């Protein structure tokens, strides 16, 4: 059997293909679960992701449209349209920045927070269920010893 340290430098073993396929399959199952959960509460998957990106932004509970666009990996104008729809649903509100009143911040409303909490409880349980599988397949693809050698 070939040394695993060469895994990133050329040939991919059958075992690595199997591990990568298993990892992507587990990820896809989680994403499908997430998509179905969002739809069940009347949101699109992207709307759910936007709520999570706002609430889960590091060190604060608000973001700019530009920060949201970056987190969602969409263009600024797409994020603006998404925020417009979330605001119309009463899930997000725009507020002026504290230090710079020209800066617009996005925050979840009470309704948005409650809906996100409901979804997040379900997602946490699913991640706890799928976590060991995701972790073990990732470990087979890139064991800590290989990651540390990069």
The secondary-structure class comes to mainly alpha
Q: Helical region count? A: 6
Strand order of the largest sheet: 1-3-2
The poorly predicted ranges are 1-7
* Count of extended strands: 3
Characterize the main sheet.
3 strands, antiparallel
Shape: elongated
Mind telling me the CATH superfamily name? Winged helix-like DNA-binding domain superfamily/Winged helix DNA-binding domain
Tell me which oligomeric state these chains represent: single chain
Overall radius of gyration: 20 Å
Helix proportion:
55-70%
CATH-defined fold name: Arc Repressor Mutant, subunit A
Distance between the termini: 21 Å
What can you tell me about this protein's structure?
65% of the residues lie in helices and 8% in strands. The chain is mainly α. It has one domain (12-139): Arc Repressor Mutant, subunit A (Orthogonal Bundle), CATH 1.10.10. Strand 2 (92-96) and strand 3 (104-108) form a beta hairpin. Helix 2 packs across helix 5. The protein is elongated, with a radius of gyration of 20 Å.
């Amino acid at each position: 059997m070939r040394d695993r340290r060469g895994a990133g430098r050329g040939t991919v073993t059958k075992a690595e293909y199997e591990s990568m396929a298993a990892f992507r399959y587990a990820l896809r199952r989680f994403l499908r679960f997430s998509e179905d959960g969002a739809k069940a509460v009347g949101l699109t998957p992207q709307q759910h992701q936007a709520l999570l990106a706002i609430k889960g932004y590091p060190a604060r509970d608000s973001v700019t449209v530009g920060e949201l666009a970056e987190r969602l990996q969409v263009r600024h104008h797409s994020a603006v349209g998404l925020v417009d729809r979330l605001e119309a649903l009463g899930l997000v509100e725009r507020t002026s920045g504290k230090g710079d009143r020209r800066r617009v911040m996005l925050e979840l409303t009470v309704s948005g927070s409650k809906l996100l909490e409901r979804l997040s409880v379900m997602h946490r349980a699913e991640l706890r269920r799928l976590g060991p599988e995701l972790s073990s397949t990732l470990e087979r693809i890139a064991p800590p010893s290989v990651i540390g050698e990069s």
